[in-house]
Amino acid sequence: MKVAILIAVLIAAHTSAVPPCELKEVKDENPIKVTPSWVSQGCWSEDTSEGREIHLINLNLDMISWFTMDLKNTVPASIILNSNKNVSLTLFNENIYAKVYLIRSDSWITVTGPDNTVDLDLPAVVQSDSNSLLGWAKSKYGAVTSFTELIDPQSITFNAGRGHSQDCELQTNFTQGKYLEYLPVTTSVEVKFCRIPMPLKAKEEVHIIRHLPVDTMTPRLIEVNFTHHNPSTLILQGPNTTTWKIICRIDCKFKSNNPFIIMGHLLLPNSPNLPASYEGLLKFAEADSNTAPASYTEISTDSKRLKVYMKSMTNTAPQLPSTSLQTTTSPNKPKTTMHLYLSPDYRSPSEGIVEVLSNKTIYAEVSTSLSMEGAKLDIENCSLHARALGMEVKSLDIKKETCNPKTCSSRRFSFTLKPVQEHHSQRWDLQCFTAVTFVPHLILREGVERGLKVIKAISTLPTREFHGLELGAVLGIAFASFLIGACLTGALWFIHTHTGSTVKRQPVPAIPPVSENSSANHSIGSTQSTPCSSSSMA
Predict the structure, then answer these.
(1) Fewer Cβ atoms within 10 A, N terminus or C terminus of the chain?
(2) 3-class DSSP state for residue 126?
(3) Could you report the per-residue pLDDT of 222-273, keeping only the tens digit for each?
(4) Which long-range contacts link 275-282 to residues 24+ away (Cβ below 8 Å)?
(5) Closest CA relative to residue 410, chosen from 485, 334, 357
(6) Rounded CA separation 144/133 (Å)
(7) Cα dist. 11→2, 4, 135, 286 in Å?
(8) pLDDT digits (tens, 9 = 90+) for 393-432
(9) CA distance 311 to 207
(10) Sign of the CA dihedral 388, 394, 397, 398?
């Protein structure tokens, strides 16, 4: 009986879902960091309007109804304030250099303090959109020095100051400069994390982040900065009010049941049926035999915006081959590379400047580090640019190969170089423009280049590659040869049988004996004889 119970317990332990690690609160040594973010977007430039700095502060309020603002600027500046809800503002320090403008529409700001404010009436459609606000300010003032979108500030200290950019263009990954300081409202963020041992057979890591908000009705934006060096997949799960912003610094794939932002585009969920439980997400991550969960993170917060930083779990990063050409310098952008090959097997990429013969087929492969299910890499066009002849450009007719319809992160194509004239350059740069789309949105457009040295071929005729004959062609030729041989043999036999029998039936003429007087008679009858005449007479 005891043995049976023990066996039953062992079987149950083996078949039940046992958590592979224990969730613990995040510490400094964990490879993940979660912080509230209070600046949604913004920009900072060197532009001024008639000697005055123009600063626009757009308030995104949810948890506060009152805030303070201290004006400490010592240069002429105009501060334009806009809010998404009614709020009270207390101004400190009457400042002769500052002029405060309050935008009024569906919501407005009530001010107590120094009377140096001006009301501005705007349509609600302009007031509610940051891009429209920035465009309106540029049109009205001719320039904008800064634009800052703040989430729930308790207090703001305005110092003024100009940036270094020539124009103020909104950036989503923006940190305000010294022109402004703020104290955010207090929020709670609880993060639990565990590292999961990877099995040896697994080739790809899966990292799971689950959002457990305090309030499921408030929209939240979570920015994930993913910097792992190994091939990895992100699983991002949250309630319907969650939106993920994904910044991948290397090749990464991701699945989410929520909308997500990548390369500035808001896209629909690509895995709407993700499990909403710890055990379910782990089982989902193990569905592919090549993948296994490597970490699990739970985030619980009442903040409207979070930033998640995931550090690398390995100390070594893979080295890119010397033939790869990185065309993007920003660490937040995917990398695009191109390899050239001299054979259609795509086994050995050519390094450095590739020497090729004209009329020779060249094979190329373009890859992007942005790899996600549903994304498609396409080659828009390719051309050759001469190095020694200025702006001479030759367009190429490329033949693209088919790509994996599920995840198309690399494309292969081939082209044939036309004969090089005497006056043309031998040194060329191959330039191709690529586009990554996530139906139906264009996510990324990039250009890649490789150097070519074109050597003039001896013959002007295009080279032809002989691939041999198929079995059917060989059998056909053999059968035709047999028939021709049989016909010729029959014809020769027919000629032989007919002409040979006729010759045998013809009698052989008898030669009469030569008389004694024949020569004399012949001599008397003919005074001039020739071999021909004697033959005829005979």
Answers:
(1) N
(2) helix
(3) 989 887 767 788 999 999 999 998 887 655 688 999 998 887 778 888 888 9
(4) 275/237, 276/237, 278/19, 278/210, 279/17, 279/19, 281/208, 281/210, 281/235, 281/237, 282/17, 282/19, 282/20, 282/208
(5) 334
(6) 11
(7) 14, 11, 67, 21
(8) 788 899 999 887 767 888 999 998 776 555 456 788 888 9
(9) 12
(10) positive
